[in-house]
User: Fold this.
Amino acid sequence: MSTVFVDTFFPNASPLRWRQAEDGVVELFPIPDHARFSPNRQFTHWHLRLVLPAGDGRQTIPVRFATVMSCWNGRESAAMREEPAVGVVSADGKTWAGLTGRRCEREGFAVEFDVPVASSITHFASLVPYTEADLEALLARVAGVPDVRVYQMGATVEGRPLPMLEVGRSDAPESVFLRTQAHPWETGGSWLVEGLVDRLTDGSAASREILDHVRFCIQPMANRDGVHRGLSRFTVTGIDLNRQWDAAIPHDPVLAPESACLGNWFAEQARQGRTPRLAIDLHNDCGGNLHLAHPPQDEAGHLARMAVFERLLREHTWFREGPTGHGFRNPGTFGEGLSEQYGIDAIIWELRANHAVGLGRQPLAADWRQMGSGFAQAAYRFLCETR
Ligand SMILES: [Zn+2]
Assistant:
């Protein structure tokens, strides 16, 4: 049997080692990325290309992932334990289909997939990739569109620009903030933002009404270096951008400029009296819940308003997972820090990655785009009903 080549030398490709085993299966040995001065590490992102030699007629390429250990909040666990085990596959890197794997019985391995072959290069990833090229295409598409503004907030550790994308009248009375890809593998929020921006700029009367009342402020692809390098969670300096949002401690502008420039942006909005009333950090996990905050001031009000938000999401989107139990706390996150510092409703929204309850299947890019379209109305109604 001819040998498959595994290409991991392109933007957003995941670092990993590989070999083709004696039984013909491509064995993948993931490399987790690491937190700075902490045992935390994570492997959840894979993105690679399986390349076949000319004339190779096989229909599928069997692959299996070696077991690697992740560590979250100091707790070790094997990566790839989520059920169902899913990935995505594409013949052209643009149109992706879902793919379900299975537990691997072989010692030292976690999950295996039969990857269908549709061309000489088969693209294989954990979630539908959203790369810098996708972000640049979005920014180019909205350049010059009325009520859309793009400006640079800062740069990453490696010098990549960090844009702020604003959609809505600059003097709109209300603002909503969204951040995406603080954790590079979690692309669902980026696809949601694509659907949101397309909806808001569709020229309809309903969108016009929203744009007149709400300014949507979006920091897309916060961990841009990590996206470029195919990391799962941390930045290249080992920072988790969804930690250290403590009111009393500013972000380190050298180690975490991605958080520092956003912290400065919030401070400037507050100085102008324009702090967004709703701030959402978009993530992916296998639970899919809203992670509510525990602000020391007006916690009951926060919970009551988030109940309104949850109802509106259910009305306008296919979101069905609900909030975490209120006993769940994750100190130092974006939601906890900003809600305490500014008294706003700031939460983490984990889009369920592997099986959406409201769809009854694995969500793909088009589903998150649709969710973003519905989110426009849900966010607008939220601001109206909780004014
Ligand atoms: Zn995350």
Summary: The chain has two domains: 5-125, 132-385. The chain has a mean pLDDT of 97. The radius of gyration is 21 Å. Residues 132-385 form a domain with the Aminopeptidase fold (CATH 3.40.630.10).
